[in-house]
Design a protein that fits this description.
Elements lengths: L1 H12 L2 H9 L5 H19 L5 H25 L8 H15 L4 H14 L2 H14 L4 H14 L3 H14 L4 H24 L28 H4 L12 H7 L3 H4 L1 H13 L4 H12 L7 H15 L4 H12 L9 H18 L5 H16 L7 H9 L2 H11 L3 H16 L1
Length: 421
Amino acid sequence: MAGASDKARFYLEQYVPELQEYERKEIFTREEITSITSKRSGFEHTLNARGSRPSDYARYATYEMNLDSLRKKRCKRLGVKSTAFNGQRTIFFILDRATKKFPGDMGLWMQYIHFCQKEKANKKLAKVFTKVLRLKPREWGLWVLAAKHYAESQGDMSTARSYMQRGLRFCKDEVKLWLEYTRLEMVYLAKLAARRRILGLDGVEKPAQEPQAEEDEDMLTLPTITAEDIDPDARKGIEEVDDDALKRLASAPAFSGAIPIAIFDAAMKQFSNGAEEAEAFFDLCATFKQVPSTMRILQHILDHMQEHTANCAETAICTAKLSLLNVEAESASFPLVLGQTLSGLKRNENDLPYKAIPKLAEKAVEMYIPYLEVDSELDEDVMMVLQATDPVAAFVEKLRKEGRDADAQMVEDHRNSMDLG
């Protein structure tokens, strides 16, 4: 116990100059400083005694974060522009000790990462990412978190891609990582497209160079031309890309959708051309309607599915989704397109194995639900068609007519859970 007390005393002594300055500048009163010292003493004795837990460090760090928030408010109110000390250094010190003692505790690492992000401590955050990823390379979410930080906060797509590439070395079997890599690239394309629209640079896309499909055991082969290649200053963020760079970018693979396509192709090799995985890629990319190359990407995915998984419900539903993608429910052409889509689904249903038909029905219901939700805007004939093609609702009604209310409720609950998902 004496050893623990000595350690606690040693750490507490480090805070003395800080507290003296707070008192001298009247940021905290003497009574408040006494309370702060007492709180820190309690935490330090707990941490340096046997049996300390990760939650003890987490509580200590949270206390210091709240204290620092109060310090900032007091400084602002008093007009104190700067102090020689701040809570950031103290909190870093606590979290460094915490992650060193409990390197396997993800809660502590996430607290550390979130604090660095909040404080915009980018240099420190880079070191934290390096440490935790060395310890936890199979935590695919960490690779995504690091990549998103560099892409969104730093405007550094080169480093963001590097994190995703390295993550795939360790987590090849995690489809969510492949999808997040694709999302990262689609968000980047959306930002570039928005910037081009603002500058009035929209135009017809030129034919794009296809990615080279080289085999590599560890690294995903991507097109070599990116925004950074066209303009080195692009790494500073989308806002820094000048007009000429954006014009040149229009015909580069980075803007034409070749990178998401390359990611998809590599993922399909990893997941043996799985229909479910391909549909997940399709659905993700379909949400980026504002990206000029989205239709090209979706058509590539669909072509791949029709070649490798033609007789699957996933392929049939993706075909239907693509036909309705850019058709507004309120438009005059929607009823015609809808009818053609329904006819196509019916033809595909006849070609599917019997066991795939229920899956197609559920997917069809899920696809049409958004149109049912805008019933006040839709033509009555369209509403009638949509409701008539809802096999789950029809099935529920059939069960109720047969007096099987319990079964009907069970099916309806399943549909509700699907809707919420």
